[in-house]
Amino acid sequence: MPDTLPLSAVQHYMYCPRQCALIHVEKVWDENRFTSEGRLLHLRADSGVSGRRGGVDVDRSVPVRSARLGLYGVADVVEIRSDSSGREVPYPVEYKRGSPKLQDWDRAQLCAQAMCLEEMLGVSIAEGAIFYGKPRRREVVLFDSALRDVVERVCVALHEMVKNAVLPRAVPGQKCRGCSLTERCMPGKRNRGVASYLKAGLE
Question: Hey, what CATH class is 5-168 in?
Answer without folding.
Answer: alpha beta
